[in-house]
Amino acid sequence: MRVLITGGAGFLGSHLCDRFLAEGHTVIAMDNLITGSTDNISHLLGNERFTFVKHNVSNYIYVDGAVDAVLHFASPASPNDYLEHPIPTLKVGSLGTLNTIGLAKAKGARYLLASTSEVYGDPLVNPQPETYWGNVNPIGPRGVYDEAKRFAEAMTMAYRRYHGLETRIVRIFNTYGPRMRLHDGRAVPNFIYQALTGQPITVYGDGSQTRSFQYVSDLVEGIYRLLLSDIDSPVNIGNPTEMSILAFAEAVREATGSSSEVVFVQPADERVQDDPKVRRPDIRKAQALLQWQPQVGLKQGLAETIAYFRSRVV
Hints:
Elements: E1 2-6, H1 11-22, E2 26-31, E3 50-54, E4 69-72, H2 79-84, H3 86-107, E5 110-116, H4 143-163, E6 167-172, E7 175-176, H5 187-196, E8 201-204, E9 210-212, E10 214-215, H6 216-228, E11 235-237, E12 242-244, H7 245-256, E13 262-265, H8 284-290, H9 298-310
Parallel strand pairs: 1-2, 1-4, 2-3, 4-5, 5-6, 6-11, 7-10, 8-13
Antiparallel strand pairs: 9-12
């Protein structure tokens, strides 16, 4: 296949580029580098089956030649990023989705949308199945990301129903691994950076809020299987092992061998407004229809992620 991956220089997008190239496909990575980095794809630049295009997909997209699949992964994805770039976040979820799905329609390509567990908001059910409609504050600070993704899902389904486009939607739960940005504000890089530099590990609130952490290779496997499947409704891809943020902080401290103290903070900014209290995927659909489930345990995943961050902590 010849595939277009938007957000291809980002954390997830770059790993997808690796996987598609490893499978023998040709990849066009498109990214405006607002949160991505060419460092993530520098090892691919000499590959004759790989092309990088610097472009904002919220503007008109032109790709010469055939395209067999479009994977739309362009978007700020951490609270720090989408609170700093609220309007670009809304644009890439709306205009970016319109432009990429329009390209897929014009090329007769299969379309895969990167959605998120944030479409469930601060959920009132746990774990969250794909049938749950969510509990989202549309006018809160996180709404720029949550509602952009919900709109993108609605547009994707409208193109499937009205135009008969082949579409796939993956709802991605918390994912970590090499190539995460050191200061993107999420728990994994925050805790690892603090532990490696001997700073206190700062946990928001009392640390009782829960998350489910999946390693990036598990996510990429799920996405690859989903694209090649015939499932045209949303599919959760995540690790169903739920743990408190406090327990995760302790796991990071142990894995790094750090003597950092875990401290509790009460930030007064918008980062924690509408922060989900629980987050755990119901993955029965992926298990049954994709024969997929996570393979990488927390200990192994943290070891590989910490090794990556050690090389970048100055």
